[in-house]
Structure formats: structure tokens, C-alpha cells
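Section 3.1 - Work completed
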Amino acid sequence: MAPPAPITALQGVSVTFGGRPLFEGIDLSIARGDRACLVGRNGSGKSTLMKVLAGLIQPDGGTVFVQPGARLAYLPQEPDFTGCATVHDYVVQGLPADEQDEAHRVDAVLDRLQVDGGLDPRTLSGGESRRTALARTLVGNPDVMLLDEPTNHLDLPTIEWLEEELLAFRGGLLLISHDRAFLNRLAKRTLWLDRGTVRATDRGFAEFETWQAEVFESEEAAAHKLDRKIESEMKWLREGISARRTRNMGRVRNLLDLRAGRAEQIKGGQQAKLAIAEADRGGRLVIEATGIGKSFDGPDGHKTIVRNFSTRILRGDRVGLIGPNGAGKSTLLKMLTGQLAPDEGTVKLGTNLDTAYFDQRREGLEPEDTIRKVLCPFGGDAVMVNGQSRHVAGYIKDFLFDTRQLDSPVKALSGGERNRLLLARLFAKPSNLMILDEPTNDLDMDTLDLLEDVLGDYQGTLLLVSHDRDFLDRLVTATIALEGDGTATEYAGGYSDYLLQRPDKTAPAAAAKPKPVAAPTAAAPKPRGKLSYKDQRELDELPARMDSLGTEIAKLETALADPDLFSRDAAKFQKTSEQLHTKQAALAAAEERWLELESLREELEGGRG
């Protein structure tokens, strides 16, 4: 059966910025029924490529094809409301010119997304702005949708509603997103913009990292004729991005242990209070809230944010807060950290708390300051991290910077690089309590990976407000869900654990969910059982295999650290390099298999909760 004809396509397309090609010779197509994602490093040109498809940027070479009569709808990262007095005025522009008198269609889509069409778009919050832009994208019944970071600033109920809409969409779809859970569910095809060209696979995003590793291995096998400098650049690219995405299994084991402990705390409720009271004096207790509540009087009347909520957060806990926009996540966070007094109940804070705070507004950077000055504002080359002095050049490598960028001004950095620099500054400040309010908004995937790595190693206590389901699953030991009706409930584990444990499993916290409600129903827990003999044996053997591979990798890395190895014996250098990458790929596969089997074992034995 012949593949469907493309609705839109690029043939040999090139775009140049400042005399340097951003990408060239690009061929890709989107057909009816396609659900593709476009991935690539920050700054690789993903948004530019999508704008070429949308007809907003003319390429320097090649052709752009759009099937005659086809409708394309483009969702930008930042909507431009210029010339629109109301939300309705903006959304109606999404209709074809000959259909703009059909105002009922605008009203219908705004109602589904719960946005007031009479609002001034300049006064919208981030979430309202994104829903308005989505309304304009959806209203014209397009044949192809080009969506650039559609989940930014959306709450979880809206993200889940959007997933259902896009799953039902019969046209072509191209997505750019940092939300892994979103891409895992939607993308059936992956386009990878890498070093100026597009690679394509019919695998979904869930298999992207495996595919990426295969590509790098293939390149390594063909790279033996390259000189040392090119090999070094390839090594930095591969290890700076791909290796960071390999889960640290010791960290995964630790997270599972922490979740089990947190589950026991939650189950025990107040019974454990007297037993650990003495230990609290030594700094084990971070936050204790007892029966707290908060209400506000607003234009829509009296609203209860939270009522009769209690929790005990101990040193090392990682707690996520979830719920619809407007449910009161930030309000509860402020009460728990002493920034806002509750109307009822009490909050007790532990002693000697050093707090680091990362809010949605992102504390700014001075454009003329260099990376060195941002991290060493008082001069010198040392950064104090976790009580230890580190050279700033080594520290910035942890945040995916090349040491040659040390004296680059902030104004020369990309958006993703600025976000990484903000994180580097944040984590250089001594703290034992980290508060992150929507940290994943506007982060590219590389920076998101980096943030996850750093937080995974953080030894202090973490309070995290986020709509990123995958991020929550990988990091938190407990989840506090605000339902939007004044109730707040704590569950052990991450977002997936919340879905399984909540009493009403037909719909997540959804007080502000767009209409019609179309949230996915969580899968019912599987019957208790156990792994097959073969799987259990494999699970038992994997830790020793991972330890062995880790030892071999360490030896190979030590050998390659010899600065004279390449000049002394180029063949040995090449062979050792190939062995290293083979072992790294084997370790990554073993770690993924261990996680898969361990999760299956827990599910069969009755779940984590």
C-alpha cells in the first residue's frame, strides 16, 4: 500500500544565519494521520524549521510544498496579540478568511478551553495565554497542526485534555515539546534535527534515546579516520547529552527506597509523632503542618484554597505539588514555608534551614556579565558547591557549557543556556531546602535532563510545583494533590503513583479542566503475582552485571584520560574509545532493563502504595 501523499513537505531546504548555515539540505514531509515529533539540542533550529513549514520564514534554498487548499495551523511558543483588543479578536484570526463571520465556532472552542473571549489578551496569565493560542490553532479545523511547546504553562488537566484532542485529530501533526510524557503518548514518528540535518525514524519518542545511541555508535565505528580534535568534539557532544540521559541506577534504587519510607510515614499518620519528636530537635524535621486552612474573598466570591491539611516533611524528602491552575499550589507552598500565615492550624519549621528558591519569574541576569562573573561575583575562580571549592571552569561543564564560554557575556547565550546558567547559580548557593515553583516551564530538554540529574543528587529537602508528569515520576518521594475544591491529599510516590492511589480513578484533579472532560482512565492495578522464573533470575543478575560494567567503564575512562595516548598509539586510543562506548551502551541497556523488571515486580506484588 502506497504511503499517503504529503500535505506539506520540505525539499532540500537550507537556512543561514549570520553567514553560517543553521541547517541545509532538509527533506521532510507531513501527511494525513502523521503524528511526528521534532527533537534536537537547544539552538539546533527546531523552531526555525517549524516556522519554515508554517510559511513564516523563507528558506535560503530549497522548496516548501503545501497541498493546494490545505489548511496549516501554527502554534508559536510566544503568541503575538498585537492589534487584538480581546481574546475573541485573536482567536477569530484562526478561521479562514471566508469563514470569519462564524463567531459561534470561536465561542465553542473558547468554552471548551475555559477562556473568556472578552478579556484583554495583554492581561492574560501564562496558562490563559497558552490556552488562547491553542484555541486559535484548533478553531479552523486545520489539515496540519504545527505545535511549538504546546504544554508550556498548562496545568495537568488541560495537558491531558489536549492529549485526547490530538489523539482524535485525523490530520497531520508535528510537535516540539520538552514534555516526555506528552511525546511518549502522542508521537508515532521521530524527526531528529542534529548538526544541520534531519534524521527520521518510524519509532515513537519513547525509543528516541535508544535510537540516538545506535546512531552515535554507528558514527563512532566510522570515525577512526578523524583526527583527535574531531574525536574530542564528538566525545563531548555524545557524553554531554546522551550519557546524561542514562539513568543512574543507584539514584533510582534510592528513590524507590525513599518512596517506601514516605509511604510508611503517610500510612502512620500522627501515630509516629511522639516517637520521633526528640529526633526533630537535631534537624530531622523540616516542616510540620497541622490542620491548616486558607480562604480568600475574590470577585467570584469566597473561595477555600485548602482546609484541614496536615503533613510532616522530613530531611531528604522530595515532595511534589500538583493540581489545576488556580487550585492553590503556590498558596499552599507559601504556607508550608512560612511565607504566608494560614487562617487556621499551625505550621512548624525546622531549625537551621537554608532555603534556595526558584520561582516562575526566574531571577534575571545582567546582559553584560560573563558566565565567570555570574558564578564568581566577588572575583576569583572558585565556586563553593556542597561545602567544597570547585574551579568555575570545571563547574560549568556540569551544566553543559564548554569551558571556552567562561568569558562569554550573558547576552551572547541562547535561552536554554541562560536557563542553565541560572540553575548553576542557584545550585552554587548553600541550601538544605530547595523550593522550585514551575521550574520546567520554557526549559529545553537538555536543560531538563540536567536539572533532573542535579536534583537527583541533591541531599537536602525538595518542594516542587510542576505540571511535568515524567519529571515528577523521576524525582519525588511524595505528591500532594490539590483538587481545586479545598481538598489536599498526600500520596506516596510520583504522578503515576497518584493516578493509581487516588480514590476516584476516573479523572485527576480537574476542577479547572477544559470541557468536555476527556481525561484518560488510569489502568486498574494488576492482580498480585510474581515475575516468571526467567525474569526474576535476570533481575537478580543485573545488579552484578551493572557493577561489572561500571568497573570496566572506569578503567577505560582512566586509560583515555592519558593525554599522550593518542599521539603514542592512535590505534589503541581508537580501540579503547570504541570499547568504552560499547560498554556504556551495554550499561544503559542493562539499567533500563533493571528498571523495567523492578517496576513490573512491584506492580505484580501489589504496587508501591
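Second construct:
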Amino acid sequence: MARAPLLQLTDISLTFGGDPVFEDLSLVVQTGDRLALVGRNGSGKSTLMKVMAGLVEPDSGAVIAGPGVSVGYMEQEPDLSGFETLGDFAAHGLDPGEMYKVERAGEGLKFDPARPVATASGGERRRAALARLMAEEPELMLLDEPTNHLDIEAIAWLESELKGTRTAFVIISHDRAFLRNLTRATLWIDRGAVRRQEIGFEGFEAWRDQIWEEEDMQRHKLNRKIKAEARWAVEGISARRKRNQGRVRALQDLRAERSAQITRQGTAAMALEAGPKSGRKVIEATGIAKKFGDKQILRDFSITVQRGDRIALVGPNGVGKTTLLNMMIGKEQPDTGEIKLGTNLELALFDQARAQLDGNMTLWESLTGDPDMRVSGKADQVLVRGQPKHVVGYLKEFLFDEAQARAPVRSLSGGEKARLLLAKIMARSSNLLVLDEPTNDLDVETLDLMQELLSTYDGTVLLVSHDRDFLDRVAATTIAMEGDGRATVYAGGWSDYLAQRGQDDFSDSVVKSKPGKAEPKAEKKQSTSGLSFTEKHRLEALPGEIERLEAEIGKLEELLSDAELFTREPVKFQKATDALVQRHEKLQNAEEEWMALEEKAQG
């Protein structure tokens, strides 16, 4: 006999501020499900998870948990008010004899149960919330970005726990390796609809791209049909008005169908511009050491950073990665040893704490108030890589809408704050880019674009991250900080570091969770598509460009169908004729480019 589902959502609709988030959404979570919940930033992943947890009431529809099923939820910003210590919060609702579960989770997740809530950081609060959920052992766990603020060892512990549990779970995460290792099916939120595939995150991107390709093909066919019907209407409708009203209505229906289609959100128009070249030697550290009280952060460390290097710093939380990073760029001085910075350096810094963002400012003020972006005498413009741009237009390039421009920064989600900080950084040229935990809260598509930009950036990159996939894609050198002041330089990214270091000191979950060196992500992608990242995005963008050109051609042809236009407005007629010729040329070039890329993609 089939078991009842753990959780069922039926015909869920939800509206915030007039815009529908979901309409007629239905999904089922079964016993044993291990689901990745994916979608663009702002698509409603966290909102859907809160609906599943019973924390957000939908406008219509039903949320039904199975008989006796307990649902546990770990949110991004847990409320610890009313609790004195992190341990008190994590153990809430447990029997006294089950306190060992919190202590065990605390050890694996590296948080101190005795830490007062009043002095705990955001990361410690989230780890306590995760420990509480793991200790509760509900039948269904809902995990919203559980790896944020965890170091790689803690992520490995969590992976091991989730692999061994019989509990069903739904995970929102930007960490590709984490999702690949744990999930067996994927829920994809796209434009208010949820699709499910019975393959884990490993197969998500190929599945998504196939759906988008089919959509583009259908849209392309619909536009060609509308174009043909519109040409018929222009050329002969007056002579056939009585006999063909049905065909006219069909044309109207086709246009209504196209208008009803929801355009998918584009990729942020991020760009990195390297400034004047720095000197060949960017940083030279010789015998540096650093100590805080009795804690040795670094001892006798030396490194030379050359122009164009991609260097990642890895290690447990609190080991001193950010301290070493700050010493390398001159923001902090070593106790002993010497650091020499190269010549002609232009630094851009993405800081882990997002300290460059003032939560009380609006997005508009955050950009226009930046001295490096201010345009003298223009309150509505910002300077972007030397060129003035309207502040709203620039925000739109990073996927913010006009209404958000006057909203306070504190109202933004984690991913939106990261995009705003990237907008500030990328407005100026640089030749030394310092990224301290840049991957937190960014969606997969934005991470893809950032990785592509870093690969073509004509400058030097220093990076701190716990995202193994990101490290493998970006880093050419890894500095491993392993405690007690030890820092060792390894060639390559995370996988190469593990191979050189040896795997004995890491859990099996870490070893299995990383993409193997024999099949790196970039090579795998290249072998399946035959396209570079830039070409792939161009192939995705071309159907939309072709659609736009066809729409413009249709309008121009409709305008020129007026037989009296030439005599009535000859200048307008000539401009429209010239524009029509140009659009046809652009359309032909775009279609030829699409065909060439499509053939290349097919091998």
C-alpha cells in the first residue's frame, strides 16, 4: 500500500505587493525525497520554503502535512530572542536526555553552545539553528542555505549527516558540490511555476537549458506565424473583411498568447574592467608572522604574488584567512617580517561583512553617495568605468527593478546585497581584485557569470571561499591555513590541494564530494556543449534578439504599408525604409550566428 506523502501543496497562489509570486502551484514531497530547490535570486525559493513550513499563509490553496509528520525548518535569519545562550536555543523542546544531540551537532558545526546570544555573530546564530534542526530529527527537514558561514570541514560533517539520515529533506543552496552530493531530485522555480525532475542537481543545468531551448524554439515559431498572419492582414484584409473575421480573431489570439508569455529573467550585466597594468610583482611577503594574544595566526610565511595570479585562501573558520588577506593588501601589519606591495595597484574589495553597504541608505543613495561613482552636478547619474549612467539603468543591469531603487538596503535579501556590492565594485576599474566570501547567497547563473569574468579579468585575484566548486573553477594557487600558524602554498584549486595534501586527514564525505581531477567541471562542460561560457550565453540570448528584430521589422513594415506615407511624410518614409533595411541585415546576421553556434554546440 502506497504511503501518504509527507507534504502536499495544492493550487497555491500567493501575492506580495500586487505581483503574484506563485499561481496554482502544486507539489508533493514523499518519504525519502532528497530535493534541491533551485531558482534565480528573487524567484521565491525562500518564500516557498516558508509556505511549506507553515510560516507564510498562501492567498489560496492548501498545505497539508501527512498524519503525524513533523516538519522542521532552518531559516536564514533565525529569531533567538528569549534565549540566553546558543545552546538554550538549540536544545529548546528536547528532553534533557537528548542534549547530547546538540553537543554533537555543535562539535560538527563548530559553534559553542555556551556562547551568549547577545554576543553571537550571524553565522553562529545560523549554526545554532542548524544544530537545533538536526537534533530535532523531524520527518521532513527544510534547509535554507545551510552551508552559509560554514567552513569546508563543517560542510563535510553536514554532508555526512544528511547522507546517513533517513529523513527527507529539501535544500536551498548556492553550493554546487553540496547539492550534487546530496540530492536525488530537483524542484525548479521559474516565473512562478515549479517543475520537478527525478534527477539530482547534477543534471539540473542540462535539463534547464533544454527547457529554455524548447521555449525559445516555440517562441520563434509563434513569432514567425504572427509575422505571416500580420503580412496577410496588411496586404489584403480590406478586400476580405467579411469572409475572414475568424482569421483576424486568430491573429489577435496569437498576439495575446505572445503577450501572456512571461519573459525569463536575464543574467546580471556584470562586467569587470582591469585598470592600467600593475607592476609584474604585485605582493611580496617575506617571513611574516601574526599573533592575537595567545593565538598564533601565522608564522614565518612567505609568498610572491605575480600579476595575473589567481590565489585562494582556504581553512577553517577563525583560522585567520581574512587577517592574512588584509596583511597581503596592506590593511593590517604583520608582527614580524615584511610585506612589499607592487607599483600602480588599483584595488577593488568585496568584503565578507558587506561593510561597504549602509543598511539605512536606499540603493539610489548607496550608489550616488559613493565618492568613486559620484557625477558632479548630476544627482541621478553614477560614474561606471569612466562613463556616466542613470542610476536606475545601472541598477537594472544587476537585476534590480525601478521600485527597488528607493528601497533601503536593509530590505534586500542576501543575494541582492551581494549584487549591489558587486555593482559598486564593478563600476570602477581595478587591477587587484580581493574577494572575501563572494559566493554566499548568489544564484547559480550569477556565479557562472562571475567565474567567467574572473577567467578573463586582466588583473590579479585574491579569494577567500568555502565553495569547493568555485575554488576549483577559479583558483590557480591555494594557500591552506590549517591552524597553529601553519600556512602552506599548493598549486591549483581545492581538488588539487586535496590530492597533494593526501586524503587521510579528511572525511570520506569530503573526498567524495569534490569533483575529481580526472573530470573537472570546466572540461566536462566543454565536452558536452562545445561552446565557451560566453558563446553559450550568446546562444541563449540570440533568440530574444531575433524576436526583437522581427518585432521591429513587423512595425516598420506596417508603417510602410501606408501607401500615402511617402507623399505625406517623405522624411519619415525614408527613415523607416533605411531602418527596415538595417533591421533585415541585423536579423540575417543574428540568424546566421545562431545557426553557427547551434551547429558548434551539437559538435
